[in-house]
Write a structure and sequence with these properties.
Helix content is about 0%, strand content about 65%. It is mainly β. A hairpin with a 2-residue loop joins strand 6 and strand 7.
């Protein structure tokens, strides 16, 4: 049996700013924009390894609500490596079951001496169990464990884990168009540095979220494709200083990919995020734009 699976978008990009997290990137590894359609083949084991390099400019580097000074507007560089193992691909009822586990390691570097104290590493372990149903439907139960470590002092600034449940579908059209959609619920449990006897508790970033996203891929020519994403995410917090906080995060992005070889690609991208929050200090707008290079090998 061969089914198309829309949601193996492996690479994760987790943004760190001050003592908070970018809610868009903290959602899931599926939020990245590596919109590859992976087919279920007649084999029961497989894997993939990859590397991504990005350099970008960011209008609001620390995602703050208010004026952004020139001193903080430095280029940002991301290096990410990952490895994924896959097992299963066995028939279950009318569909196929897949199990995946992966490790992601990334480093974010600010290209200005003043901001190097914010350089950080992120480490992610993820597990996904996905049921692929005829008609290009999929349902997935996943788990993520994440850590953010400051490069300057080696301190773990954030760690957390999150189970999730997702439903998705892939649509294939003529003219080289593909459209995928997903609806995901996630529960995030986290720990950051706190202050005893105050509302700055270690669990103040715990939250529940649900998001809906659309991804479109247009194969322009043999080696060029245009990939776009739009989504909305709702989050509800209940702990510490974030008690009764409710966020709405809107995001759009678009990338023009050049793939001269099967294992290599380069792209230019632009994306915009706008977070609305019941706590004004967590509201922000941001634009990113830059260059991306990737190498990906599956077996």
């Amino acid at each position: 049996m061969t089914l198309a699976h829309p949601f193996k978008q492996w690479l994760g990009l987790i943004a760190y700013f001050a003592l908070n997290l970018n809610a868009w990137s903290a959602a899931s590894l599926n939020d990245l924009g590596l919109q590859q359609v992976v087919e279920v083949k007649e084999k029961h084991f497989g894997g993939a390894v990859g590397y991504r390099f990005e350099v970008l400019v960011r209008s609001n580097p620390f995602y703050i609500d208010g004026p952004v000074g020139k001193a903080t507007k430095a280029p940002v560089m991301h290096n990410t490596a990952y490895a994924i193992g896959e097992a299963g691909n066995y028939g279950l009822g009318m569909g196929v079951m897949q199990h995946s586990v992966g490790l992601v390691y990334g480093r974010t570097s600010y290209l200005r001496d003043l901001l190097k104290v914010f350089n950080h590493d992120n480490q992610t372990l993820f597990i996904d169990n996905t049921y692929l149903y005829p008609g290009n439907w999929s349902i997935s139960v996943g788990f993520r464990n994440m850590r953010l470590i400051n490069v300057d002092d080696g301190v773990t600034d954030y760690q957390g884990w999150s189970p999730s449940l997702s439903l998705g579908r892939l649509f294939l059209f003529s003219g080289g168009h593909q459209l995928s959609m997903h609806l995901r619920n996630e529960w995030k449990f986290s720990e950051i540095q706190g202050v005893p006897m105050t509302d700055l508790t270690q669990d103040r970033l715990n939250h529940w979220s649900t998001d809906f996203g659309l991804d479109h891929k247009w194969q322009l020519f043999d080696t060029f494709s245009l990939r776009s994403h739009g989504g909305v995410k709702f989050s509800k917090y209940s702990k510490g200083s974030n008690r009764d906080r409710n966020d709405t995060l809107l995001g759009i992005r678009s990338s023009l990919y050049w793939t001269p070889l099967k294992l290599l690609s380069a792209s230019i991208f632009v994306d915009h995020t706008n977070r609305l929050s019941s706590l004004d200090r967590n509201t922000y707008k941001n634009w990113d734009g830059g260059l991306r290079f990737e190498s990906f090998y599956s077996f």
